[in-house]
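note to self: the first set is below, dont mix up w the second
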Amino acid sequence: MRAKVFIMVLLIVLFLVGCDSEEEVDRKVQDYIKETYGFEVDITYRESLNEGNMGDRIYQVQRTDDPKVEFTVDLMGMLDTEIEGDNYIIQEKAFLLGENFLKKYGKEVPKLNISNVVFRKSSGLNIEANYNSTISTFKEETIQPLMEFINLLNRYQESEKIEESFDVLNILYLNEKSVQFNQISEVKTMEQLKEQLYHDLDISNESLKERDEPLFIELEDNLKNLGYQYEYGLKSNDWRFESFGCFQEYYENGECSEGYRLYLKGDNLDKDKIFELIQLLNSHPSLTFQDIVVSNLEDDERILFDDIKLIKSMTDIEKVYSGENESLGRVMSNKGE
């Protein structure tokens, strides 16, 4: 038994000793690039070495001089790292296409609040850019510059007779958020652009909340009059804990078709008060609610309604509290969860 343990330890030591260190691999990559192309690079990303990839991995590097092309270097080997090759040539070609685009449309692009435009090669051409604005599906003034930018890209592809397709446009907008547009050569109208935005749940959610925030502020006063409040406040810095939102399957053309989910807290979970609360929410002239969760202030009990539009009378409330009809809702204890 001791002999087996000794052999295992020895093998591990030999493995660790035999493996190239990160510094050694970095030096190999930098020497390879210097010898092959004559310029130096900074390493921007290192894929980890593990048994799952059997040592096959990539390094992302970027030229330190101009043009500042970013490209990948392919590595192999669990112990002695070897360099298989790189994709500098094709990434340089894509990068220079981007530089030429900026030379051609250098006056128009900044007016659209667009900056840091970079072309990269993938299956087709991927374009990355920063957009110094928010994006809302209900505010065309935030979408129009993106439409004009896409028009410039499509015009550039046509005028330069670029055969490769413009597959993906990645936009990094305010607060380091991002949105991806696909097959931009097919995007010709604002409606087509919005259709892609509707499929981005973050943007759909943000757009809805921004539009409906004044209504939720107004509702907050009515809730307080009944003894209830938003469980996580009107605004939350953590997307996992928000007082209202929309389920993914309920989004339709940027709207929450079935209604919002709502999290509330209150000092009274009596049947009469809960029924009064549901009547208030169902009668709102502009907001529609689907399911609500109401917790008491001690946070040891909560009531969940799957669709408050189905609650028509005190009889329905009684069925929820008695457990007779769980399709309407259920009373749950938070103790021990």
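second set (the one i keep forgetting abt)
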Amino acid sequence: MHKSSVLWRAAWPSLGRLAAGLDAFAPATAEVVLALLEHYQLEVEGEHVVVVGRSTVVGKPAAHLLLDRNATR
């Protein structure tokens, strides 16, 4: 994605807000991770959760979303 595109510019503020624990739009791929956990009724609150990978599209946002649901590292 070219850095001048609207999606590129909108993504970075959302990732910063997500990291700060504020309301934000997470990347769809990270949201799917949480949707799968909910679909299979897997509770993450208080559980030790490991996210393999630290990409800005999946890994980091998924980790922040899981932390927002009180999963631990």
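remember for set 2: The helical segments are 6-19, 28-39, 59-68.
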